[in-house]
Every structure is written in structure tokens, then in C-alpha cells.
């Protein structure tokens, strides 16, 4: 027996193809540095980094991040005054951290190993970030014992 033709559910591939970018606003603690960033829905999520450098830079147990195209980030105030701190990342390649010279808030960093087009945004500094879901956790091997897992965790970085 042949089923009668019924209305078909909307195609998921069509809705994925029509991903809409949303602009989020961020600013540093003192207000001197301000930025706008365009994120697709699957980028409006936090990647928790438990690495020891993030602990040192933030004075906390982990940081909140997302990898985005460099072109998605625009500084509307203070961008030309940002200072840069450079250290050797896990790969040995330089990581450049850009921070407000007045209050030290760190809007993003550039891992040179990722190439010139990708940067790592500190998602926790964006307006509305409290509504972003945790998408993954990296450097789980050095997670502090009392910090509970909230997303898929990788020992270091996810496989390529
Ligand atoms: Zn500042
Ligand atoms: Zn880290």
C-alpha cells in the first residue's frame, strides 16, 4: 500500500544554508575599547579553554572563546591603541594577545599557527554572552578537579 502524499517537513539543509549573521557588541572594563563582531548561529557559543595560560591571563579557572574569521571583528573605539602580549603556544608558534592598555581586558588573540585569517575571540565579553551555550571544552587534561564538565571535552585540542 502506498502512503498518501502528506506535507513534507521543512528541509534542514535549506535552513542550514540560510545561516544568518548576528552582530554582537563588546567592550572592555573601562569602556575605552569597543567592538562589534558578526557571528553565525553556530559561532554564538562558548568554547571553554582550561589551558594554564588562560588561567594565568584571566586569573580564573578557564576562559570563553570562539574561533572566527578576522574580518568578522571590527573595533569601533580604541582599536588602534590596543597593546600586544606574545607568548609561544602549544605548537611553539607565537600567540599574540591584544588587550586594552588602560584596563587590560583582552578582546581577542591571534594564534599564528592558525594562519592570518583566523582569530580567537573572547566570547564572554559580548553583550548577550550569558545566553550562549557551551559548545566544547579544550585542554580538559588540566581542568581543575572541582570544575564540572558542561560540554564535550578534549584532552587538548579537537582532532583536525
Ligand atoms: Zn579598557
Ligand atoms: Zn587557553
From TrEMBL:
Keywords: Lyase, Metal-binding, Zinc. It holds the Pfam family GFA. It comes from the Eukaryota. The keyword Metal-binding applies. Gene3D superfamilies: glutathione-dependent formaldehyde- activating enzyme (gfa). The keyword Ribosomal protein does not apply. Residues 24-133 form the CENP-V/GFA domain. InterPro entries: CENP-V/GFA, Mss4-like_sf. Belongs to the Gfa family. PANTHER family: DUF636 DOMAIN PROTEIN (AFU_ORTHOLOGUE AFUA_1G03180), GFA DOMAIN-CONTAINING PROTEIN. This is Mss4-like protein.
Amino acid at each position: 500500500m502506498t502512503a498518501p502524499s502528506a506535507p513534507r517537513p521543512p528541509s534542514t539543509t535549506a535552513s542550514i544554508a540560510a545561516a544568518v549573521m548576528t552582530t554582537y557588541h563588546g567592550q572592555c572594563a573601562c569602556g575605552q575599547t569597543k567592538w562589534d563582531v558578526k557571528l553565525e548561529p553556530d559561532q554564538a557559543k562558548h568554547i571553554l579553554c582550561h589551558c594554564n595560560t588562560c588561567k594565568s591571563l584571566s586569573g580564573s579557572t578557564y576562559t570563553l572563546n570562539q574561533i572566527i574569521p578576522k574580518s568578522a571583528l571590527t573595533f569601533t573605539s580604541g582599536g588602534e591603541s590596543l597593546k600586544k602580549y606574545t607568548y609561544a603556544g602549544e605548537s611553539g608558534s607565537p600567540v599574540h594577545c591584544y588587550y586594552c592598555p588602560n584596563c587590560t581586558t583582552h578582546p581577542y588573540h591571534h594564534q599564528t599557527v592558525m594562519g592570518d585569517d583566523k582569530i580567537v575571540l573572547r566570547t564572554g565579553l559580548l553583550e548577550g554572552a550569558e545566553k550562549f551555550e557551551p559548545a566544547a571544552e579544550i585542554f580538559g587534561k588540566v581542568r581543575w578537579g572541582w570544575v564540572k564538565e558542561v560540554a564535550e571535552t578534549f584532552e587538548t585540542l579537537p582532532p583536525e
